[in-house]
Amino acid sequence: MSPAAAPPRVRRAARAVLTGLTGASLGVALGGRARGWLGPVQVAARAVPAGTAGVRVDIPPAGHATLPIFRGPLRVEVLATDVDPSRAQGLLRMPDDATDAAAVRDQLHTVLDRAGDQARRLGVALAARTVVAALGGAAAAGALTARRRADVGPSPAAAAAALAGVAAIGAATLDRDAWREPQLRGLLDKAPLLLGDLRTAPARLDTYRDQLADLLRTGTGVYRKVAALPEPPPADAVRLLHVSDIHLNPVAFGLAQAMIAEYHVDAVVDTGDLVDWGTPAENAFTGQIGGLGVPYVFVKGNHDSAGIAAAVAEQPNAVVLSAEGGPREVAGVRFAGMADPRFTPDKTTGDDHAAHRVSEAAQAFAAGLRGEHVDVVCVHDPAAGRAIDGVAPLVLAGHTHQRSVRRYGDAVVVVQGTSGGSGLRGVQRDPPDPVSLSVVYLDRATKRLWGVDEVTLGGIGEVGLSVVRKDVATLLATVPA
């Protein structure tokens, strides 16, 4: 039956519904707005009839975040319009004697609770204004188009029914945890927003670090215990956690702690670039090594100064390798290592003879080990591995920020990515550098490489976790011909 053939009552009802919905949409677009404060940020919120539901938060010029908190035909858009500097400075202000992480967490909980209350008040105000605007718009549209006074009422009634439906859909699909995984765009997907005094930033990162560690524990636990794994390593294999190029990222040690617990690691091997600039101010970063609870084998990278190496050596569980120090036995494995001969933290002042210096130092290092029994050699730059053939069957390295496997003669060189996502430099790349850690399995009797579990987390602003197990044959199959 065509619309023209429908009974007049049906046509009037359909016209009233269409008019009501159109008027409600216009009313929401014009009047569904509210303003308020979220912490130090003044925001303008509005309800928008749209095909994509949820909440979109715009922070110009940094970009925007989309939170899929609910579904339906309405989207809430929140625009940051102003920042009050005095509120921002007081937001995370701590008493002078409250410097421990627990006090900072308590302060963060207070700040988050206050922001939650402000967000609820803003939401209630926006909802009330949206309902009034929708009903008012529907009534106005009905009054303008109705031929009879009796035809006005159905339009706001239709709008009220539509609003009730939207509310029901929103309540049924509400996901209160969706804010934990926002979809970031623009500059927001390149770097976290860190507010407050930088002296307390490491303490305030504890929460983020703990959450990443929980993700890592969960992901690796599920992978190892549930997923269909390739052939497992020997039960008594020596397990080494290989990290490299942390570049002052405080998250890395939380992830390392999670890996140590999940894999029952025997020792951590760090192949350098623990920090960025090698300054005395960065010495304090090495203090986290002592809390790992297992031996920490370290070789200096080109970003690490001699002072950083000395600070690492002061940790009770640290073993700093160098050509002068000779081989050291850790967890039943004989290690030898060569400190990177360069100190080039500033890339704008490069060393034109850097490669030659590494090669010369590696040759002298290898010559000094002839006749020594060594199971694993640790270097920062994998280019040094060319001189290691005949010294040890396995070389662990870093420096390149990309995982790879090389073979020089009988020596297998396993190159780690960056266990700190390249630090702050990582946000300059698109996508950001991933965070890479690996568990290296050695046969306990022969100390030969059995295989590697490669654990990768998305870099800053990214979400993702993968665990790939490769036995030695699989690893060698990736070596370029």
What does this entry look like structurally?
The chain is an alpha/beta fold and 481 residues long. It contains ten helices and 19 strands. The strands form three sheets. The chain has a seven-stranded mixed β-sheet. Strand 12, helix 9 and strand 13 form a beta-alpha-beta unit. Helix 1 crosses helix 3.
Short synopsis of the structure:
With 481 residues, the chain is an alpha/beta fold. It has helices spanning 8-31, 85-91, 101-145, 154-172, 201-204, 206-225, 251-263, 306-313, 354-369, 472-477; strands spanning 33-38, 41-49, 54-59, 63-67, 74-83, 183-186, 238-243, 267-270, 296-298, 318-320, 328-330, 333-338, 376-379, 394-397, 404-408, 411-415, 435-442, 449-457, 465-471. β7, α7 (251-263) and β8 (267-270) form a beta-alpha-beta unit.
Strand content: 15-25%
Structural Rg: 30 Å
Largest sheet: 7 strands, mixed
Whole-number mean pLDDT: 78
Query: Which term fits the overall shape?
Result: elongated
N-to-C span: 73 Å
Structural class: alpha/beta
In total, how many beta strands? 19
Instruction: Please give the order of strands in the largest beta sheet.
Output: 10-9-8-7-17-18-19
Oligomer class: single chain
The unreliable regions are 96-101, 186-205
Total count of helical runs of at least 4 residues: 10
Helix content: 25-40%
Helix/strand order:
HEEEEEHHHEHHEHEEHEEEHEEEEEEEH
